[in-house]
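User: Reviewer 2 asked us to show a designed sequence for the structure in our supplementary figure. I'm pasting the structure tokens here. Could you produce the per-position amino acids so we can include them in the response letter?
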């Protein structure tokens, strides 16, 4: 069987295991992703593992003649004169590690591109015909080759666990801290203060815009379900006060929170997509926030038009008690933290992380000491830890909580975040074993044909998985695993942040009965299932498509930052 066809079959089997396990077997997303990772790892042939490991550890070779060859001397290679390398053929036959050549670096020569350098190496010995294989050669250090051999002997479970641990190390602290921030924002009344303040700014007539903006910014550190739980009592209260436009209030709450959920870290979906595609977190916040806000504004106008032609009655929802949340809305203004303090835990990590992105783009603007401080404070883990500490202090100050009460709130937040970390890390394991299949070779021609094609491909893959199994986060994790190999290969002709944004937008179509968010919205608002399909699904789907349009415009006009 052709290797490309084999890779495609393994990919489809992996996706089907994820979707089928969630839909048919009703497994938790964590179990579905781990099961899919094990299946993919089992089906991946050893030749694909060899190819992947060697490609990850080796360096391109060029300009082969009888006595010398050139090795690409990039920043990560650490080449120096006198260093010896082994040359392997990329044919990946049974004698892969037996047919080698040994070379020694003698000097460095400039490449054809500006700033490009190659290390010229003298051929010491060879058991392969280098001249006939020059288009399929790689240079690898002997120690790296030994490491490759050890990885090839690893068990299926060990390979899955390695991907799991790697992703957990990247995002575990961030998700845990984001959970604490969200819980403290709710318990301290900070989230309530943000909503009330925006309502004051916009007035009663501007309540829909206030709901959209509040939902968007609260959706950055707080999960979508929680944001909707928090804000729907306000929507009901506005309906009672005005006597109309309940559908508008519900839809504007949804359109703000749902876009932040899919496009702006540290929410798990966009966070893992940024990590998998190698996108700077600050840049992901900037681009994802811009695209998300534009989509939310579109959603606001969509909701305004729909509200003119349809009406949603305010119904009783006895199966979901809102007593505690509604009681919190009756808290006096003097019991809530000031607005500047309420919004600080949201803005602080964004500012710190963005500063790192800025000095990365303009390194000459700061001295070495200042740069070191900014890089330390702007580290994504440190920034979120600072923000979580600030949120906890705000909770203690505002509610006069004891350390024991604070511990209880933090414990509840970490219990919720722990589940998300497990799902995210399992998605990392799934993506890791997918890359080992050589999936980047499957779609290798896409980057050279069209950036638009690759962004649309990422969008469609995510949308198909989201529609099939319901979870936007699982869809983004799966799509990021599929696309990460090509995104990190260095062959893209555009910045991978556009691909990350396209995947985020692709997680919006189509919200229906298999989506937990669909049930949260319909049950809490009093919508029927038919009304949910009529109002929610078309709005979120069209928002995703509008977001893709903005991404395609961006990648065409400004492909690289």
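Assistant: Here is a per-position design you can include in the supplement:
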């Amino acid at each position: 069987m052709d290797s490309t066809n084999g890779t495609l079959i393994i990919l489809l089997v992996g996706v089907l295991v994820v979707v089928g396990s969630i839909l048919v077997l009703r497994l938790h997303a964590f179990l579905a992703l781990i099961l899919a990772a094990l299946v993919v790892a089992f089906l991946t042939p050893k030749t694909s593992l060899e190819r992947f490991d060697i490609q990850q550890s080796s360096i391109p070779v060029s300009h082969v003649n009888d006595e010398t060859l050139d090795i690409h001397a990039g920043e990560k290679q650490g080449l120096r004169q006198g260093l010896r390398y082994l040359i392997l053929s990329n044919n990946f036959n049974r004698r892969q590690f037996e047919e080698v050549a040994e070379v020694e670096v003698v000097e460095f020569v400039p490449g054809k591109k500006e700033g490009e350098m190659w290390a010229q190496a003298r051929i010491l010995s060879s058991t392969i015909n280098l001249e006939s294989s020059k288009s399929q050669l790689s240079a690898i250090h002997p120690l790296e080759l030994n490491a490759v051999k050890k990885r090839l002997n690893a068990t299926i479970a060990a390979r899955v666990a390695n991907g799991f641990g790697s992703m957990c190390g990247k995002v575990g602290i961030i998700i845990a801290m984001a959970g604490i921030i969200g819980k403290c924002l709710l318990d301290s009344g900070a989230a309530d203060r943000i909503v009330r303040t925006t309502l004051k700014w916009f007035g009663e007539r501007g309540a829909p815009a206030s709901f959209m903006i509040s939902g968007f910014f609260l959706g950055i550190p707080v999960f979508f379900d929680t944001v909707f739980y928090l804000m729907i009592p306000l929507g009901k209260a506005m309906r009672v006060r005005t006597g109309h436009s309940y559908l508008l209030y519900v839809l504007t709450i949804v359109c703000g929170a749902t876009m932040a959920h899919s496009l702006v870290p540290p929410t798990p979906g966009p966070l893992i997509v940024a990590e998998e595609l190698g996108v700077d977190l600050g840049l992901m916040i900037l681009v994802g926030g811009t695209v998300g806000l534009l989509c939310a504004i579109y959603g606001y106008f969509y909701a305004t038009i729909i509200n003119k032609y349809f009406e949603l009655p305010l119904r009783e929802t006895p199966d979901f008690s809102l007593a505690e949340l509604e009681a919190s809305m009756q808290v006096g203004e003097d019991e809530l933290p000031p607005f500047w303090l309420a919004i600080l835990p949201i803005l602080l990590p964004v500012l710190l992380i963005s500063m790192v992105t800025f000095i990365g783009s303009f390194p000459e603007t700061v001295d070495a000491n200042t740069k070191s401080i900014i890089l330390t404070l702007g580290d994504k883990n440190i920034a979120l830890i600072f923000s979580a500490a600030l949120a906890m202090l705000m909770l203690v100050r505002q509610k006069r909580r004891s350390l024991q009460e604070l511990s209880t709130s933090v414990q509840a937040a970490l219990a919720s975040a722990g589940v998300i970390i497990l799902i995210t890390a399992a998605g990392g394991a799934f993506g890791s074993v997918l890359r080992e299949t050589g999936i980047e070779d499957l779609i290798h021609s896409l980057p050279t044909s069209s950036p638009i094609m690759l962004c649309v491909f990422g969008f469609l893959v995510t949308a198909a998985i989201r529609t099939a199994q319901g979870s936007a986060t699982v869809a983004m994790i799966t799509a990021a695993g599929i696309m990460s190999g090509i995104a990190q290969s260095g062959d893209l002709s555009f910045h991978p942040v556009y691909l990350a944004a396209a995947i985020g937008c692709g997680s919006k179509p189509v919200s229906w009965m298999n989506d937990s968010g669909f049930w949260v919205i319909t049950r809490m608002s009093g919508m029927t299932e038919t009304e949910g399909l009529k109002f929610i699904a078309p709005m979120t789907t069209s928002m995703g498509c509008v977001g893709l349009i903005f991404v395609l415009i961006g990648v065409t006009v400004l492909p690289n930052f």
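For the response letter, you might also mention the following. The first helix runs from residue 3 to 23. The beta strands are 59-62, 68-72, 84-89, 100-110, 117-126, 137-140.
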